[in-house]
User: Fold this.
Amino acid sequence: MPLNTAHVVLLALALHALNGCRTPLGDADNAMQDTAHAHTNRLAQETSPYLLQHAHNPVDWYPWGDEAFNKAKEENKLVLVSVGYSSCHWCHVMEHESFEDDSVAAIMNERFVCIKVDREERPDVDQVYMTAVQLMTGRGGWPLNCFTLPDGRPVYGGTYFPKKQWVQLLSDLSETWKREPQRVLQYADQLTEGVAAADLVEVVEDAAPVTPAELNAYVAAWKPSFDRKHGGPDKAPKFPMPNNLDFLLRQGFLTGDDELKEHVRNTLHRMALGGLFDQVGGGFARYSTDVLWKVPHFEKMLYDNAQLVSTYSRAYQAFGDPLYRDVVERTLAFVEREMTSPEGAFYSALDADSEGEEGLFYIWTKEELEAVLGDDLALATDYYSINAKGLWERGRYILLRQEDDAAFAKSQGMDPDELRNAVARINDKLFQARDKRERPGLDDKALTSWSALMVQGYCDAYAAFGTQAYRDAAVRNMDLLLGKCRREDGGLWHSYKDGKATINGYLEDYAFTADALLALYGVTFDERWLREADALVTYARAHFSDERTGMFFFTSDLDPALIARKMEVNDNVTPASNSVMGRVLFQLGTLLDRPADRADAERMLGHVKGSFADYPSGFSNWAQLAQHLAYPFHEVAITGPEALERRLEFGRHYVPNRVFVGAERESDLPLLEDRFLGGTTIFVCEHKVCQLPVNTVAEALEQMGR
Assistant:
């Protein structure tokens, strides 16, 4: 029986509970410090920074696992599954208001079995209960609080609850379970069916090949939601959504659509000049609360910065704008300085809050600026909008810019080099002063999937700028990732911290890592990366594939079963693991001449392409796979002693819809057979049918219509 609104409303009225939805902000508590505590629970034995933040709550928290559910069954109690992550501001607000309160904790401990989950460690658990809450409320976010039966089936949930509402909800729900258990059981059955069905893919057998007309219709359905003034979507909050920008950039160049190109340029400019970008220290916050890209939620996530490095690198290739190069260089400097461990692992996140206040590390009063900048104050005031445009709240300013350096220098009558030196001096003063403040907390676990995105970012930056340190960082971290996070059976671990890898990998770990390995092959021509990617895909096929659809489940068949085995399909702030796997299969099929892999990718796309226009921003990575199939896709083979030099030369140009393969010496890769002619030679091919070999990148680009 399908879930319907009447059932949701009926239970909600019975509980008298208001459900609030909050998207994550950020905070770092000091709960991990070794000081005396009145309470210590089981989370003290965990490694997750988020779980450790709750280790001294009076709530008798359990980590996710059988122990908690067995206790619930023995005592016939409902279970609270509370999900969050270390840089989630409203998670910490609810902790301070409710989970640190002895009286609230007493109710929770008496009437429920309480589980705390780090969504970054257990995205599979988060997916299941987020789906349940979205079915009940139409909304989602973190903290996620979902109540379940002792067997894990959901019965009610929401996001952030103020203390008074939370206490009322605890009372109402426990009474409902005590007095009307059959009613709750019936609702749980219906809701669980809804959760299981939510991500089911409708099988489309023998779908017609994707066409340019379909992609044009997709773009036409998307364009009305563009914010043509400020860039991005015409709503707030605004998330960067790198996949969206990458697709639109590709489409603009593949079709000659200047409107798409301008939208991407405008969006990238506004993001780089606004408060979303840390003008002093580099790196991007997670999203903007307004349409102006002015006021960020100040937490910095590795996955955002990794993907935006890739996007800005490609945009630099496309437009040659020095602003984009500056953004990439400063973002990677931030990642190296603040998000990379001594052994080279990439940390997950920086919180928004310090000293208990959101954004305090990043914002300034006029008095602070005067004391720090001295004679540079006047220039900084104009450059960083220390006026009504930059004013945030309580007399504090967010540093942001109204125009890029070239335009600002012209308006001020300054020499560009003079401005560059002055801004460097201003930023150095601000950075040194800021560095003395209490720093936001660091989530120091390294996640395989997010680390792979960062490797991809370094590869794309190396391709665009040729900076050897970027390639070295990519190789170093991939070696570390495979060395520390590969299981004995050839699979991957999901999380790495303090020298220990834990949690069986999810599909995102295999898809993102394989994609990064292919990117690393594409800039090094080292075939070991290609072999590693192929091995991971082989493993994923064995343990994640769904025979019915040809798609992949998010969890391995080796994992303990949850109430539903989910399948990630929609692209979001990170691309869906299935869409990434589809693109990986297409690339492997091309590079290794395996038509079956390309056919599998096309089959996966066939199941979802009919939904593109219904939710344009949710299929942008799938749509990039569609571009590979709908438009000419070039295999660029480079052979000979200067193969890598020619590959780097291609990086000066934006060339969408291509894959690079090459070697300095003889190789048995299918695309390189019989293509060593003595010197350095470039072959531009489609479906292994090649044009006449050429010796220069300029000639090859001409053959590609560039």
About this structure: The first helix runs from residue 5 to 15. The chain has a mean pLDDT of 93. The first strand starts at residue 62 and ends at 63.
